[in-house]
Specification:
453 residues; alpha/beta; Alpha-D-Glucose-1,6-Bisphosphate, Chain A, domain 3; 4 domains; seven-stranded mixed β-sheet; six-stranded antiparallel β-sheet; 14 helices
Length: 453
C-alpha cells in the first residue's frame, strides 16, 4: 500500500512517479477531493511532465465517478489553473512538481475562488479518505456520474492579467525570458503578444526532462545562462520562471539578480498607487526591512507573516490585503483571487521599467536598501537542539529582541536574522540582513558557528 506520509506535504502532494504517485492514486485523490470539497464541478490542469496528462485524466475520472463534472484545461501554468478556479468559481487541481526533477510529479489543490487546500484546510481529510480506500477498497460510484470535458482558458488568463497592468504606452523593451523548458514557454507567447516588447526566448520547448537546467531559478546556478544572454543581447532585463511558472525571478541589464524583496517593494508601491495610496500589504518574515519601509512610505499598512503560501493567503483574506510577497519570489494579488502569479509581477516590472527612461538597476536600487546573506541551509542531526543553542546565545544579549513567529528571529538595531527548520528535510535555514556586508558576514559566521558546532 502506498505510504501517503511520504508524499502528502504541508501544502500539496508530491512524489516520484510511478513509485509513489501513479494513476490509481491520482484517481483516488480525485474522488477524495470531490468528497471533501463537496464539489459538483471541478477544473483540472497539468504541466509538461510526461506523466502529467495521464495523472490529470485519472484525477478527473475519480471526481466524475463521485458525481462532479470535471473540466480539463490541459497544459497550463499553476497560476493559470488558479485563474480558472477563480474566474469559473470552481475547485481546482494542478498536476505539477514545480521545480523538482523530472521523475517527480504532484498535485496542488484549491477550493473555489483559488482558496488554498493545505493540511489545515482539507488536505488532511483528503489523505485520510485515500488511505481508507487503499485499505478497504475504492468508493462506490455516485448515483449521478459526472462528465469529463475540455476547455482552453489561456486567452482569458492572458486578457485578465493584461487588464490589471497597462503596458500599451511603455517604451519598447528588450527582454530575455528563460522558461527553463517549463510552462512559461506555453504562457509567455500569449501573455506578451502584441506588447511593445522584443522577446528573446530561452528554453521555451516544453520538456519535462529539463535538458538545459533545473527549472528552479532560486538556485543561482540555474540563472547563469539567462545572465549571460542578457549581457550578450544588451537586453533591458531578463525574466526566469520556474517549472510551473508561478514564480518569476528578475535580472537587470547588467545580468545581476534583483532581490525578490526589491520586486515585492516595487510591486507593493505600484499596487498601493492603483488603490489611491491605501491598503494592506502582506510580507513574510524573511523579506527585507525595505518592504515594510516602502509600504509605509506609500501610505500602506505592512503585515508580517510566517513563510508559506497558506499563511500569506490566509492573511490576505483576513485583512483584505491588496498584495503580498515572499522572498522566494511568490507574489499574491487581491485582484487574482489572493493567489500567487509570477506573470503578473513580471508585467508590473515591465510596466515600471518601460514607464521611465532609466535602467532597471537604477529603478530597483530605491527598493534594495540593505545587505543580505541569502538563504543558507545547514544539515543538522537535531533541529530543535541546534536552534535552542542559538537562542541561548542571544536571549540575554543587550539591545536584541527575539520572536518565534516562524522559527527564531533575532533583531538588533542594524541587523536581523531568522533561523527556521525545514518541514521536509533535516535542515536549518538561515537568513541574515544588515546595513552593510561586513555586519552580514559577522552575524552569519557567528550563527553558523553555533548551528554547525
Amino acid at each position: 500500500m502506498a505510504d501517503l506520509s511520504q508524499i502528502v506535504k504541508a501544502y500539496d502532494v508530491r512524489g516520484v512517479y510511478p513509485d509513489q504517485l501513479d494513476e490509481h492514486l491520482a484517481h483516488l485523490f480525485g474522488a477524495a477531493f470531490t468528497e471533501v470539497t463537496g464539489a459538483s464541478a471541478i477544473v483540472v490542469g497539468h504541466d509538461m511532465r510526461p506523466s502529467s496528462p495521464d495523472l490529470a485524466a485519472a484525477f478527473a475520472r475519480g471526481a466524475a465517478e463521485c458525481g462532479a463534472d470535471a473540466t480539463l484545461i490541459g497544459l497550463c501554468s499553476t497560476d493559470e489553473l488558479y485563474f480558472a478556479s477563480g474566474s469559473l468559481d470552481l475547485p481546482g487541481a494542478m498536476f505539477t512538481a514545480s521545480h523538482n526533477p523530472a521523475r517527480y510529479n504532484g498535485i496542488k489543490m484549491c477550493r473555489a475562488g483559488a482558496a488554498p487546500v493545505g493540511q489545515d484546510s482539507g488536505l488532511t481529510e483528503i489523505r485520510t479518505l485515500v488511505e481508507q480506500w487503499l485499505a478497504g477498497g475504492a468508493p462506490a460510484p455516485a448515483a449521478r456520474q459526472g462528465s469529463v470535458g475540455e476547455r482552453d482558458v489561456l486567452g482569458d488568463y492572458a486578457a485578465h492579467l493584461r487588464s490589471l497592468v497597462d503596458l500599451t504606452s511603455i517604451r519598447r523593451l528588450k527582454v530575455v525570458v528563460d522558461a527553463g523548458n517549463g510552462m512559461a514557454g506555453h504562457t509567455v507567447p500569449t501573455v506578451f503578444e502584441g506588447l511593445p516588447l522584443d522577446v528573446v526566448p530561452m528554453y521555451f520547448e516544453l520538456d519535462g526532462t529539463f535538458p538545459n537546467h533545473e527549472a528552479n531559478p532560486l538556485d543561482p546556478r540555474n540563472i547563469v545562462d539567462l545572465q549571460e544572454r542578457v549581457r550578450a543581447e544588451g537586453a533591458d532585463l531578463g525574466l526566469a520562471f520556474d517549472g510551473d511558472a508561478d514564480r518569476c525571478f528578475v535580472v537587470d541589464e547588467n545580468g545581476d539578480p534583483v532581490s525578490p524583496s526589491a520586486i515585492t517593494a516595487l510591486v507593493a508601491a505600484r499596487e498601493l498607487a492603483r488603490n489611491g495610496g491605501h491598503g494592506t500589504v502582506i510580507h513574510n518574515l524573511i523579506t527585507s526591512w525595505s518592504v515594510p519601509e516602502v509600504v509605509k512610505e506609500n501610505g500602506g499598512e505592512p503585515v508580517r507573516t510566517r513563510v508559506g503560501h497558506s499563511f500569506i493567503k490566509q492573511e490576505m483574506a483576513r485583512t483584505g490585503a491588496i498584495f503580498g510577497g515572499e522572498h522566494s519570489a511568490h507574489y499574491y494579488f487581491r485582484d487574482f483571487w489572493n493567489a500567487d502569479t509570477g506573470m503578473l509581477a513580471a508585467l508590473h516590472v515591465l510596466s515600471a521599467l518601460g514607464g521611465q527612461d532609466g535602467p532597471l538597476s537604477r529603478l530597483t536600487a530605491a527598493y534594495d536598501r540593505y545587505a543580505a546573506s541569502g538563504e543558507i541551509n545547514s544539515t543538522v542531526d537535531d533541529q530543535q537542539a541546534r536552534a535552542a543553542a542559538v537562542r541561548a546565545a542571544y536571549e540575554d544579549r543587550e539591545g536584541v529582541t527575539l520572536d518565534t513567529l516562524d522559527g527564531l528571529t533575532v533583531t538588533a538595531g542594524d541587523w536581523w536574522f531568522n533561523l527556521r527548520p525545514s518541514n521536509t528535510e533535516p535542515l536549518l535555514r538561515l537568513n541574515v540582513e544588515a546595513r552593510d556586508e561586513a555586519t552580514v558576514a559577522a552575524v552569519r559566521d557567528e550563527v553558523l558557528g553555533i548551528v554547525r558546532a
